[in-house]
Amino acid sequence: MAVADICRRLRERGHQAWAVGGAVRDALLGRRGEDWDLATDARPERVRAIFRRTVPIGIEHGTVGVFGRDNTLYEVTTFRRDVETFGRRAVVAFAETLEDDLGRRDFTINAIAWDPVTGETRDPFGGLADLRAHRLRTVGEPAARMAEDYLRVLRALRFAGHYGLEVEPATWAALRDAVPQLDVLSPERIREELTKVLGKTRAASVTLRLYESSGVLARLLPEVAATVGLRAREEEPDAWTLTTGAVDAATPARVLVRLAALFHAVGMPSARTRDLRGGWRFVGHEAIGGRVALEIMQRLRASNADTERVATLVTRQSFLFPPDAPDAGVRRWLRDVGLTLMRDLFRLRIAHWRATGAAGGDLDLLARWRKAHAVLLTHPVLAVDGLAIGGDDLRALGLPPGPRYGEILRDLLERVIEAPALNDAATLRAIVQRDLPGA
Question: What is the pTM of this model?
Answer without folding.
Answer: 0.90
